[in-house]
Structure formats: structure tokens, C-alpha cells
Amino acid sequence: MILITGGAWQGKLDFAIELASEKGKDGSKVAEGAADSFESAFDSFIIHGFHEYIRRILEEGKSVDSFIDSIAEQNPDVIIISNELGCGIVPMNPKDRQWREVSGRASVRLAGISEEVYRLVCGIPSRIK
Fold first, then answer.
1. Contact 49, 35 (CB under 8 A)
2. Alpha carbons 67 and 57: distance in angstroms, whole number
3. Which of 35, 51, 66, 122 is deepest in the core (most CB within 10 A)?
4. CA distance 48 to 51
5. Left if phi > 0, otherwise alpha if psi is -120 to 50, otherwise beta: which for 46?
6. What is the DSSP code (8-state) at residue 116?
7. How confident is the model at residue 31 (pLDDT cuts 50, 70, 90)?
């Protein structure tokens, strides 16, 4: 598993596609967290917008930890992209604050089980694990 994080629109998806290609995987097989089914995260080479999957999981009252467990078990070589949400203004809406907190904790967990972790700023990746 590889985790890529950073701010919005920093080139994370392009970098993930490049990494997938280097590893001999089809970088066009991408699960989009904002729109695709939860099941698509189990058989895609890249999960883009993991933080959006988290938003949907919270809205449905499901377990983020169970989702992460399932991905780790069923798709251990996946590249996961998640935006950093904790570096801006704290949202006034309690649900948005919860989403931000849960997304941060999920990224910590994903980083712990990932073989590689990258942070992108201005399209420049820095390997942090």
C-alpha cells in the first residue's frame, strides 16, 4: 500500500498514475471517492479522494476502520490519495469538523500500514516513509 497526501490540486493523482505505471499497473483504474461505489476501492489500482469516501461512510453511519481493514485485506497493493484537511480554517459545522478529524485519523492509520508515504506540494513529491 502507498499513501499520497497533500493539499487540494497539488498533483497527487498525476503522481499516483506515474507510480502505478512504474510498478507495472494500469494507472487508469481509479476509484473516485466522491462518486464510485465502495466496492470499487477493493479492485482499483488507485483510490483518489479517499477523504470523500470517508465523508460518505460517515453520512451512512458506517465504520471507517472496517473500510480501511477491508481495503488492506482485499487490495494491499493499492495507491491511496487523500487530501490534507486539517491545515485550514476549522469548519463551523459539527459534521464537517467530524469529517476533518476522522479523515486525519484515517490518514494516520493508513500511513502506519503503508509501505511508502508521500506528501506533495506544488507537484513535488517528498517521500516521508
1. no
2. 9
3. 51
4. 9
5. beta
6. E
7. very high
| Distances in whole angstroms, Cα of residue 55 to Cα of each of 26, 65, 102 | 27, 13, 9
What the block records as the C-alpha cell of 17 is 498514475
- Which of 121, 123, 113 lies closest to 6, judged by CA? 121
pLDDT per residue over 52-84, tens digit each?
Answer: 999 999 999 999 999 999 999 999 999 999 999
| Percent of the chain scoring above 70 in pLDDT | 100
C-alpha cell at 91: 469548519
Distances (CA, A) of 29 to 45, 47, 68: 6, 9, 19
- Whole-prediction pTM value? 0.93
Task: Please report the pLDDT score of residue 90 as a whole number.
Answer: 82
